[in-house]
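Filed under: proteins

Residues; backbone shape codes:
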Amino acid sequence: MLDLAAHFNGFLRADPRRLHFAAHSHHPWPDATRAAHMHVWDDAARLMDGKWGPILGDKLAALRARIADLLRLPDPTTLVFAPNTHEFAARILASLPQGRRPRVLTTDAEFMSFARQAERLAEDGLIELHRIAAEPARDCVARLVEAARQGFDLIWVSQVFFTSGAALSGLEALADAAGGAVLVIDGYHSFMAMPVDFSALAPRAFYSAGGYKYAMGGEGCCFMHCPPGWLPRPRNTGWFAAFGALDAGGAGVPYAPDGMRFMGATFDPGGIYRLHAALNWVEGVGVTVADIHAHAHALQARFVAGLAGTALDPGRLVVPVADPARGNFQTFDLDDAETWQARLTAAHVVTDRRGRRLRFGFGLYQRAAEVDELLARVRAL
């Protein structure tokens, strides 16, 4: 197993009693991000109004190159940034055809940044929303492919479901079946948690993720890969989307030809600095995303193996530990999930709950010792 806890001293020492097992929700930041956070202030003081040139130039270019390498994207300029993924969802939804109700295909396990907005539009009859069951996950893609052949304007699906941790594969088949639909893959629970090779899907599908979870850069910096030629002029647009426009003097509102066409407006650049620092730190310590994934799975296996004799039943796992098609967190489906979370909180164990589902997340900042201490506290309950 990896032992990188010493690189997270700032977060881990802030509350020594705390056992944090919610990496899927709010991953601790490596210490390397603190200097980046201070760098934002220093650049603002030094450059003032002039800071946007370097931020939108060299800073974004370097971060794009790093993310593109991690996702195996052929062209870093297809990447665009926003403070949150809801901005991307809103711009894509606002780009759907007019004159009729656009047809949207998704699952019943999408994160709220998209699911809430889509449901609200459906309430007013502005879109026709079709949701298929995300579970069982093993044949979710097959069900999506079958449904997609009915013809849709937008298809939106997670690569790893936040409700269960189940990971999908074979999304190329969905791209083949999607026809002319805009295809969006929500990668927030897969980026930097498991290896992602998006090279085959890059010409066809959007991919969104961000720094809040496994990328370890905190809030305020999300990104989206925008396939060339798809949705060239989003109706929901900010003035930064004109940066790089080839023909600013032409008819209509100008747009950049690359990923910047989905850009919004003025934002806090702190997240960009931190995310860049976090990704550079990972590279600097010689850790790959495959290493991170293997480390999390090894910790999961240790945790589940130690649950024998406790009141937390491994049989209640939505995705069994023997199933490799899972992300870096484990989800228990429990009648008393709320009670479990409250008792764990009282024992200074941070978990995360969605309804009756209690989630334990695993990450680079943890070692076998933290898992053993978690098991001891579970037994004490």
Observations:
- The radius of gyration is 21 Å.
- The chain has eleven helices and twelve strands.
